[in-house]
Write a structure and sequence with these properties.
By secondary structure, this protein is mostly beta strands. Among the domains are: 131 residues, YVTN repeat-like/Quinoprotein amine dehydrogenase (Methylamine Dehydrogenase, Chain H), CATH 2.130.10.10; 132 residues, 7 Propeller (Methylamine Dehydrogenase, Chain H), CATH 2.130.10.10; 143 residues, YVTN repeat-like/Quinoprotein amine dehydrogenase (Methylamine Dehydrogenase, Chain H), CATH 2.130.10. It is built from six helices and 85 strands. The protein has a five-stranded mixed sheet. The protein is globular and about 110 Å long. About 1% of the residues have low confidence.
Length: 1142
């Protein structure tokens, strides 16, 4: 059974609308990102997110209207599930509210509109039209004031009716503005830009005639689109958009590739004006009655201004380029010269339009469409057979995003981000010897810290900050800088305390004189220390515990306790949160004890590890949860972090929980958050931040994986910052308050179609496509580039031939001619070969590049093909290539030690065309995703050798299993033994299983669907991952999925013991949790394609949905778990563990 959860939510914007949604005095921007609606407020700096909500369906339409009885606008939303909603803003609950919903307006016999769904409202506000199917217009009237009509219904949408039109392939449509106040018998006029059976573009005007049904009856009204007027008989073939012109001019503009036309619908006359340069318009927005903004396919933004004569008739226009933006999908004019550009293949933007220029004032990152991706780091380190608990924050995902000039490499990582604001460098020291960091105030009266102490093995370095300047000082307020510092902090009354391995000392800030000191007897060493403003607790040689009292800066020993060599102290902590108590961790028996102050008497002890094998190495008491008891954090030597809830009154420990952060012990550092609440950073090989969210403790990976030590550094120049020590430098950084998805962008200005990653060389191989518009002609050129993994710097470039495009890229370790393996990239291409007069004959090549020591590309082998090379994979030491109709195995061989070549060994013919291939690790099985015929599994058998299973003297590819349903596959990956996950072009996911224990041969050859659901987004790439998980893990991560809409999902298999629990929980939640529109969850996630439609998802759990259990009211949570055999807290704990995965 399968589980899926989003790491990065969709970021592509195709639909947006400006409306007075929250209040009548303020306009808000609503954008649709696949299945998410986001509401933004406006400010001088751009737009800011006000509210976001997930809906059960992918948004295909947005429109606004205002009912007569409402003070604010309502939002009409259409989805791909043939469900349509009217939403308003609920001011009390601060969320969207469903006013009305329409479900299943579809007819099975209708064919979907090829140019997308469209929605229009007539200028008089009486009707809304929906164009969902070819040759059909759905008319929905707005309820007008009449007898027996409730006041609340006036102005809302009534019952729909449908009317047919002969224009099937409509490219664009709009209602025309009336030139004068409409009369009682005037009918709304709709302009239709359509393509006839001769592929000619035409313009036709039709009038909407609607007759309402009988009031009080169930009969809907009747609509007709009549009195057609044919205006354009010879339109530009590239005409694709209609722009209605408001009064007084009226009429409509037709945007073409080489010209723009204006038509007067009353006279039939028009104005034609050629463009200076051919282009393809893709979006438009109206500024006022005479000015319009146009965007083209090449990212250029135009201003079009109409010229009117003395009779207010259009006589021409001026059009000029304002500047360059992302390639727009939707334009929304905000106000005061600001424009929102929503983009699918580039970053969305907020622009400020100047007189002759534009300024980008805000950028909204977008990683759609993801054409390919590579997983460069999973953060998993093994040690003594143990691996860390997986978190997507440990994974760095590199995506090839965008298209053409908006093409880029994106580094995507989920976690708590660190933004470097200052880098101090290594300050002339070996930072590998850093043992800790401390921040202090070194001047009296300061409200923030000004000095950073860097403790090294044999000294302490002090750096004093004055504004943006920093200076290392050799002497600081009586501190001992010639020794390593165990603890440094400010005390009351302008005192500083420093603890080294030899002494505890306090000094006066104003005079810089040492005020008091204490040292262990007999040259013993201080091994650990913790302090508050009033007490210092030190461990001496690990066997003695000493409590010191601080009184006006003076130190006085108040208690001492010896534990002996068989009970050595491993860690300790003292905190104001637990007055008159301290916590001690011991090396023996994995024991943690609570001691009473000041006599150091043991109150209670707790064995942390059942076997007693793991040692507590760091302890901390912190107030992470607001208005709840403090939490005790214990870092174990094996990488586990154990937490307890501390009862302040009784000192009792309860609610034990454990999480595996790494394979090494973590060290804790508190980061104050205000209001007495703190976050805790655990630094280990996978640093994590522990903070509160929704009254729960959340563990999140920190995106900076090279953190050795960290401390708060809230200075005047860097407020709320932290100081970080790595092995290379000291940095001042700003830390996020919670986990988010962090995207780093490297612009490539070309479509990054394919990515290969050379692990040891730390470089990417990119297959790119560049498009240019030169002298009105579109030129396309393809390259293969070698790019540095860290700096994203282009190291080398290989240009492909004319008319040749890159199709596939693979990194491989191949024989270098001496029997050793070396780094290589294998590139598959496709091109149009017209040399033999066959203009439609597709050709291709396979190119093998050697990666030299200088990190350059050297072409060492080339293989010409009769078809395009769609996909590449390694099968052992052989190369598997998916061509146009076949899968071929090539051997990489050498004629001489310097002359390698590719030799065809065997092939397998697919049903239609292979789209993707996935090789089973450690096996010679290849799963082939076919364009139309789902997945087949083929076995590669080398020619017979000693011990080989093949009885043929030649290599063979034999089909051993097949999925016999029809699906338009887009990607496939191996996720388990005899198990594959497949994605199709209609947004479905299927888990296929081969039953090797089937009774008959046919049973063993048939791939069975064990799980299926509708994701709602087309998956372009599935990347398998291999991570270790604990025996009690709820799910086992298996793959990342990247989609056209810019989403990245984590795919996992559910542990058998949790399958029924998660499925039942999902089913229960579906009864209580609703999305805007009240569409059923089961229908939303049910498998659906042109051949088959299911009623609900099969053995598939939507992680984002089940995690909404944590947001439910307590009574709903209780109802959801009834009969499941577990309690609410158990479910919460399980879901929190799942949330940490993504």
């Amino acid at each position: 059974m399968a589980y899926i959860a989003p790491i990065h939510r969709p970021s592509s914007i195709k639909h947006a609308s400006l409306l007075s949604f929250v209040s009548p005095e303020e306009d808000h921007l609503v954008v649709a990102k696949a299945n998410r609606l986001e509401l933004y407020s406006q400010s001088e700096d751009g737009i800011s997110l006000l509210h976001a909500q997930t809906i059960f369906g992918k948004v295909t339409m947005l429109n606004k209207f205002r009912p007569q009885v409402s003070k604010t606008d309502h939002l009409f939303v259409g989805t791909d599930k043939q469900a349509y909603y009217i939403l308003s803003w609920d001011a009390e609950k601060k969320r969207m509210r469903t006013e009305k919903s329409y479900v299943d307006l579809a007819e099975k016999t209708f064919r979907d509109n090829q140019t997308g769904d469209r929605s229009h409202i007539t200028p008089d506000g009486k009707y809304m039209t929906l164009e969902l199917y070819e040759g059909v217009v759905t008319v929905v009237p707005f309820i007008q004031r009449a007898k027996k009509i409730p006041e609340a219904d006036i102005g809302t949408l009534g019952e729909h009716t449908q009317t047919r039109i002969p224009e099937l392939f409509v490219h664009s449509s709009c209602f025309l503005y009336p030139r004068r106040s409409p009369g009682k018998n005037d009918k709304p006029k709709m302009a239709l830009l359509y393509e006839d059976s001769q592929s000619q573009k035409r313009l036709k005007i039709r009038e909407l005639d609607y007759s309402a049904g009988v009031p009080g009856s169930d009969e809907p009204g009747v609509a007709e689109m009549e009195n057609d007027i044919d205006l354009g008989k010879e339109l530009d073939r590239g005409s694709n958009y209609l722009v209605p012109v408001p009064a007084p001019a009226g009429g409509v503009l037709v945007l073409g590739e080489t010209q723009i036309r204006y038509f007067n619908e009353e006279t039939g006359e028009g104005v034609i004006q050629a463009l200076n340069e051919a282009t393809i318009f893709v979006a438009w927005a109206r500024i006022d009655n005479q000015r319009f903004l146009l965007a083209d396919d090449y990212g250029r933004l135009y201003l079009l201004m109409l010229e009117l004569d003395g009779h207010q008739e259009v006589e021409g226009w001026h059009i000029h380029v304002l500047g360059e933006t992302s390639r727009a999908n939707v334009l929304v004019y905000l106000d005061a010269g600001r424009l929102f550009v929503g983009s699918h293949q580039g970053d969305s933007q907020v622009l400020k339009i100047e007189v002759e220029d534009i300024e980008v004032i805000q950028t909204l990152p977008n990683i759609a469409p993801i054409l390919d991706c590579a997983i460069t780091d999973l953060g998993t380190r093994t040690g003594e057979g143990q691996t860390s608990e997986f978190s997507s924050g440990q994974a760095r995902i590199i995506t090839g995003s965008g298209a053409f000039k908006d093409g880029s490499l994106r580094s995507v990582r989920s976690g708590v981000g660190l933004e470097d604001v200052a880098v101090l460098g290594n300050m002339g020291r070996d930072l590998a010897s850093v043992t800790n960091l401390f921040s202090i105030r070194s001047e009296p009266g300061l409200g923030s810290v000004d000095t950073l102490l860097v403790s090294l093995i044999s000294e302490t370095a002090a750096f004093k900050f004055q504004g943006d300047e920093v200076e290392e000082v050799d002497d600081l307020k009586g501190l001992q800088l010639s020794e390593s510092t165990l603890l440094a902090r400010n005390l009351k009354m302008s005192r500083i305390m420093q603890v080294t391995s030899t002494e505890v000392r306090t000094s006066d800030i104003e005079s810089g004189m040492v005020q008091s000191s204490w040292s262990p007897q007999n040259n013993q060493s201080i091994t650990d220390v913790s302090a508050t403003d009033d007490h210092v607790l030190v461990a001496v040689d690990g066997v003695q515990l000493v409590l010191l009292e601080i009184n006006s800066g003076s130190l006085r020993e108040t208690a001492k306790r010896n534990f002996g060599a068989d009970t050595q102290i491993a860690c300790l902590t003292i905190s104001d949160l637990l007055p008159d108590k301290c916590i001690i961790g011991f090396w023996q028996n994995s024991m943690v004890s609570t001691l009473k102050l000041p006599n150091l008497e043991t109150l209670q002890s707790e064995q942390i590890s059942e076997e007693g094998l793991s040692v507590p190495r760091s302890v901390l008491i912190s107030q992470v949860l607001e208005k709840q008891p403090p939490t005790l954090f214990i870092a174990m030597a094996d990488g586990n972090v154990v937490t307890f809830v501390v009862d302040v009154q009784t000192s009792g420990l309860s609610g034990k929980k454990s999480i595996l952060l790494g394979t090494q012990q973590a060290s804790f550092r508190e980061l104050p958050r205000g209001n007495g609440v703190s976050a805790v950073v655990a630094t280990c090989e996978h640093p994590s931040m522990i903070y509160s969210s929704e009254d729960r403790i959340v563990y999140s990976a920190v995106t900076a994986e090279d953190v050795s030590y960290l401390c708060p550094f809230d200075s005047s120049a860097f407020p709320n910052a932290v100081a970080i020590a790595t092995k290379e430098d000291i940095k001042i950084s700003l830390v996020d308050t919670e986990r988010t998805t962090h995207v780093q962008t490297q612009s490539v200005k070309e479509t990054v179609r394919r990515i290969g990653w050379a692990v040891d060389a730390k470089a990417f191989g990119l297959g790119t496509i560049k498009r240019e518009l030169r002298d009105g002609y579109e030129l396309v050129k393809s390259h293969f580039k070698l790019v540095d993994e860290v700096a994203f710097e282009v190291l080398d470039t290989y240009a492909l031939n004319e008319e040749e495009l890159v199709e596939s890229v693979m990194y491989a370790e191949l024989n270098d001619g001496t029997g050793e393996l070396a780094d290589h990239f294998v590139v598959g291409t496709a091109y149009l070969d017209e040399e033999e007069g066959q203009s439609d004959a597709i050709r291709g090549r396979i190119l093998v590049f050697e990666l030299t020591q200088e990190r350059k590309l050297r072409l060492i082998a080339e293989k010409s093909l009769k078809g395009a090379c769609r996909c590449l994979a390694m099968v052992g030491d052989k190369i598997a290539a998916a061509l146009v109709k076949t899968v071929v195995i090539f051997g990489f061989e050498y004629e001489t030690s310097s002359a390698p070549f590719l030799r065809k060994l065997c092939s397998y013919r697919t049903s239609t065309a292979p789209i993707d291939i996935a090789v089973t690790p450690g096996d010679n099985q290849i799963a082939v995703a076919d364009l139309m015929k789902s997945v087949s599994v083929v076995q590669y058998k080398p020619g017979f050798t000693t011990g080989a299973s093949n009885t043929s003297p030649t290599d063979t590819l034999e089909e051993v299993a097949r999925h016999y349903q029809t699906t338009w596959a887009t990607a496939v990956a191996h996720v388990g033994e005899n198990m594959w996950v497949e994605a199709d072009a209609e947004g479905n996911l299927l888990v296929l299983n081969r039953d090797m224990n089937g009774v008959t041969e046919d049973d063993r050859r048939r791939l069975q669907v064990t799980s299926e659901m509708n994701l709602g987004e087309m998956v372009n790439r599935i990347r398998r991952i291999d991570v270790g998980v604990g025996s009690d893990a709820v799910v086992v991560p298996k793959a990342f999925m990247a989609t056209v809409e810019g989403s990245i999902y984590l795919f996992a298999l559910i542990s058998p013991s949790k399958q029924n629990l998660l499925m039942q929980l999902q089913a229960r939640l579906a009864e209580f949790v609703q999305s805007p529109g009240h569409y059923e969850f089961n229908k939303y996630r049910a498998f659906k394609n042109l051949v088959r439609e299911a009623e609900e998802p099969q053995r598939f759990v939507d992680g984002e949905f089940v995690e909404r259990f944590l947001d439910c009211a307590p009574d709903v949570q209780t109802q959801c778990v009834e009969g499941l055999g577990v309690g609410v807290e158990d479910i919460k704990g399980m879901l929190e563990a799942l949330r940490r995965l993504h």
